[in-house]
Write a structure and sequence with these properties.
elongated, about 80 residues, about 0% strand, single chain
């Protein structure tokens, strides 16, 4: 899916991945254990959601690295018809 950039239709939406990571972090807080990777992943999911990727497959998190390298992605405003002039 990542190599072919096939994030839609989603097998598991990014928004649900974010929710699940949040639940894991809540459980970790209750148990007073540190989960640094879960914190990192939660932040990446939130960035994907803020960029309009909430309904994409969770693997679309890979688009963030592509976008941060300067390459265009489906997350860019010019790929969304509602943002065109």
């Amino acid at each position: 899916m990542i190599a072919g950039e096939r994030y839609d239709p989603p097998g598991f939406k990014a928004a649900l991945g974010y929710k699940d990571v949040g639940l894991a972090l809540e459980a970790a807080q209750t148990l007073e254990v540190n989960m640094p990777l879960a914190n990192l992943i939660a932040g990446r999911f939130l960035t994907l959601i803020e960029a309009g990727g909430a309904d994409l497959d969770w693997s679309a998190i890979a688009l963030l690295a592509k976008r941060e390298s300067g390459a265009p992605t489906v997350l860019d405003p010019e790929h969304h018809p509602e943002h065109r002039d």
